[in-house]
């Protein structure tokens, strides 16, 4: 699947499923990319993955034909298109709190006239110059997926204005960070947290923007799909590894 196909699925109202990658190794992308998921999220915000490692992980994603999204650790637009130049077409922007901040970051993701993404000459994103500039610009617009994450009270307060910013494909909800912002740290099933998420979903869907959320189980995914969520991250590489090992140890002992 390509990012373009993934984007079309969201526009058609279909659900898509991925998981988080925090282990800094291309083989992690290869293994999870062969599991049948729709995409993988590479987490630069909460891991030790750096740009050289990301470069190798992108090639592993190519080998499996799976789209990769990167959650950035930077608030610098130039860092966004540096990541795109090495072949990433989907970006998650965490800690978005104002429309101005969101617009500033999105400006680094799209080429003119929609943004100020720099033209890097021969880069992996344009097959090292093998395709024309016109074709590259067209592909970049068609395949770019922008995922905005609201995870603070300030972000909630400004959500309607943030949703007005052109170019947002997915508004992603992180229940753990949201629970902390609401004063119920870690209590993702608290009624206040659940009510807030449901209200967010309604507001986001009215704008024609897909809703994303992180879940830990199949049951959670089914529940939120019924509420209108389309874009799911389920668990993460570390959790899969640990749970598998812990289950084996428990059965042996």
TrEMBL record:
Residues 18-237 form the HpcH/HpaI aldolase/citrate lyase domain. InterPro entries: Aldolase/citrate-lyase_domain (IPR005000), HpcH-HpaI_aldolase (IPR050251), Pyrv/PenolPyrv_kinase-like_dom (IPR015813), Pyrv_kinase-like_dom_sf (IPR040442). Keywords: Lyase, Metal-binding. It comes from the Bacteria. Gene3D superfamilies: Phosphoenolpyruvate-binding domains. The keyword Lyase applies. Its EC number is 4.1.2.52. GO terms for molecular function: lyase activity. PANTHER family: 2-KETO-3-DEOXY-L-RHAMNONATE ALDOLASE, PHOSPHOENOLPYRUVATE CARBOXYLASE FAMILY PROTEIN. Belongs to the HpcH/HpaI aldolase family. This is 4-hydroxy-2-oxoheptanedioate aldolase. It comes from Ammoniphilus resinae.
